[in-house]
Design brief:
2 copies of one chain form a homodimer. Chain A is of the alpha+beta class. The first copy, chain A, has 10 helices and 15 strands. Chain A has helices spanning 50-58, 79-97, 118-130, 137-143, 197-210, 241-261, 280-291, 294-301, 307-314, 381-389; strands at residues 9-14, 26-31, 37-42, 66-70, 104-108, 152-159, 165-173, 186-191, 226-231, 269-277, 330-333, 336-340, 343-344, 358-364, 370-377. Chain A has a 6-stranded mixed β-sheet with strand order 13-12-11-14-10-15. In chain A, a hairpin with a 5-residue loop joins strand 6 (152-159) and strand 7. The longest helix of chain A has 21 residues, at 241-261. The first copy, chain A, is globular. In chain A, 64% of the residues are buried. Chains A, B: Its EC number is 2.3.1.35, 2.3.1.1. Chains A, B: The record marks 109-110 as: Involved in the stabilization of negative charge on the oxyanion by the formation of the oxyanion hole. Chains A, B: Substrate binds at residues 146, 173, 184, 264, 387, 392. Chains A, B: Pfam families: ArgJ (PF01960).
């Protein structure tokens, strides 16, 4: 499992002391090749953390050998000194591994607006470099957790046309501040397939657009989101863009689902599927409007199948974004059609949300053939508690 | 106070039994003239409640004599039968008052997706029509409350250049689902000034754009928002657009502030002022992004001056909407400059939110001379509780 599931990778997770809890907080992932192709996507937030600025540049040549990640501090809004810290992190890692600093991706997560304790971080990376193993992926996944209650890992196996296996592995963290582009998180994906950086880049962008970009736990976009894909080529299997996209998307979908399931304080996972849209973009826009309704999310927490709040959210989407007739809208919640043609449908008491962890909201616009699903969570007392008590 | 503060108006508030609580739930406001000019603005939600559809048409000729309002049911998402109910409400009111149904504005608030009990509503309106008095404004304000803890009324006095008094009065309800355009609510404004419907319309649009449209308690836009302005001309004072706009804006600002102060479950009122913007629209867009951050709002509930979450929200605004350099951003919270030039400023512990009901967030974009303020509330346990337990 995790990033060491594919051949050609080693990883480690250690405790550097960045977290006051004393839990693991530094992870290192290295690609032993023979290929060193890489791609990455980053937050679209205009306030970008120093490691994002560093890593965007580092991966721009399509090559990365190592990813160093820390929890316990985001190194965001830390100015030129913070950027120097990310640079120094890469230099230190590179020196230990005998590679170029420009082949080191740096990722950080934790409190915004505080400098990282660089002495502790350097010592932690030194420690991690001595512990790199081919089964270190699960340790690395633990070391990047913040408010996550469980580590999130994935392993996907595929075979070439002539029966030779190749795989994709991955780890992710994120339990709040989940909103597109990207769902807020750090994620490292690995594959032992052989593909050039351009193919990795295309596959990663397509995969994240259909998965992480459709997770929206609380509408808040982070400053640090980083998803990196490294390819070792160690399987000897050359894959094309379609094959790689399928497998990477499968890995991203599993991780995205795990992020939603572990979202801070949630008691329900809510999938909003919009069908009958003129375009997929229209379906996404309508679904996203519903997933951002605090009122609907609070109703779900109260086990109330409040379809009126669904319609009120759908109605906020501008007509130029999604065409539909408000008097044609249908809404089903967990299979019960509570709204028919914009009006009252089946008795809402037929929907039992108290016994359901998953809430499936189905909106039919009757305006076309496209559809899309966006995931979110309910809005709970625990969400408020975690995010009022935890500085991040 | 309230809608009967200006001369030429009578009002009443009665209990029709629409609310299970047995509290007042039907209000009637009538303009005794001599003028009968009117204007109204409505929710921009594409899912529009039946009374909104009715009233938009009724006021389109610039004339209205009466406004009939009910709490205890929104009459939204009720299909053609619901529209017939709004029509019948207007007809019944008109017959009692000896006027045309097309001069009756209808407004409803309460649960979406249920028909109104028309027998009870008709009887309530009949009752209200017998109780109309020149000091009935406060009773009317009580009858439109839903989760409001206090009625919201306003009275503004002005004088003409030659010293003759004129005034604006008003009432509003709304304590959740407050988001622009408009803040979710019902509002009736009255004036004894003499102005044609075109002037009323221009004044009302300008006033609401700068006040109710800048209140965003929970980012959720309602299906029923209606703000009506009636002018009786009873003062004999002819006002121009600028004079009327100033007074109506002052009335709206007081009511908007009262809505924020009474927002469901809130423990802090948050004013986000963005200055140094290239345009007012850019300032509003940035301020709105901050007021919609659940993470920042939860932090304020926890008395945490979490400026990192402010910056993360500012960063979500597209560059084509608001130009700024992320490394130039300054943020002050209640006067303490916690973020300077995109990085760490004064010690956040200097900000004491526990003792403050008002939280003033000041963001300087350093990109121009325009500014704007948007109001919101913190995200609290009580918000979650009220909105998970109350079907609306």
């Amino acid at each position: 499992m995790s990033v060491t599931h594919p051949r050609g990778f080693r990883a480690a997770g250690v405790t550097a002391g960045l977290k006051t809890s004393g839990k693991p907080d530094v992870a290192l992932v290295i690609n032993d090749g023979p290929a060193r192709a890489a791609a990455a996507v980053f937050t679209t937030n205009r306030v970008q953390a120093a490691p994002v600025v560093w890593s965007r540049q580092a991966v721009s040549d399509g090559v990365a050998v190592a990813v160093v990640l820390n929890s316990g501090g985001a190194n965001a809004c830390t100015g030129p000194a913070g950027f120097a810290d990310s640079h120094a992190t890469a230099e230190h890692t590179a020196a230990l591994l005998g590679i170029s600093a420009l082949d080191v991706v740096v990722a950080s997560t934790g409190l915004i607006g505080e400098r990282l304790p660089m002495d502790l971080l350097r010592a932690g990376i030194t420690d991690a470099a001595t512990q790199l193993t081919a089964d270190g992926g699960p340790d690395a996944a633990v070391a990047i957790m913040t408010t996550d209650s469980v580590p999130k890992t994935v392993a996907i196996d595929r075979a070439s046309g002539d029966g030779r296996p190749w795989s994709v592995g991955g780890m992710a963290k994120g339990a709040g501040m989940l909103a597109p582009g990207l769902a807020t998180m750090l994620c490292v994906l690995t594959t032992d397939a052989d593909a050039p950086a351009e193919v990795l880049d295309a596959a990663l962008r397509a995969a994240t657009a259909a998965t992480f970009d459709r997770v929206d736990s609380d509408g808040c976009m982070s400053t640090n989101d980083t998803v990196t894909l490294l390819a070792s080529g160690a399987s000897g299997v050359v894959v094309d863009a379609a094959e790689l996209t399928e497998a990477v998307a499968a890995a991203c979908a599993q991780l995205a689902r795990a992020l939603v399931a572990d979202a801070e304080g949630a008691s329900h996972e809510i999938a909003v599927t919009v069908r009958g849209a003129a375009t997929e973009a229209a379906a996404v826009a309508v679904a996203r409007a519903v997933t951002r309704s605090n009122l609907f999310k609070a109703a779900v927490f109260g086990n109330d199948p409040n379809w009126g709040r669904v319609l009120a959210s759908v109605g906020t989407v501008p007509v130029e974004v999604a065409a539909y007739d408000a008097d044609a809208l249908d809404v089903s919640i967990n299979g019960v059609q509570v709204c028919r043609a914009g009006g009252v449908g089946a008795d809402r008491s037929l929907v039992d949300l108290a016994g359901a962890r998953e809430v499936l909201v189905d909106v039919n616009l009757h305006a076309g053939a496209a559809s899309a699903t966006v995931w979110t969570n309910d809005l709970t007392h625990d969400y408020v508690h975690e995010n009022s008590a935890y500085s991040s």
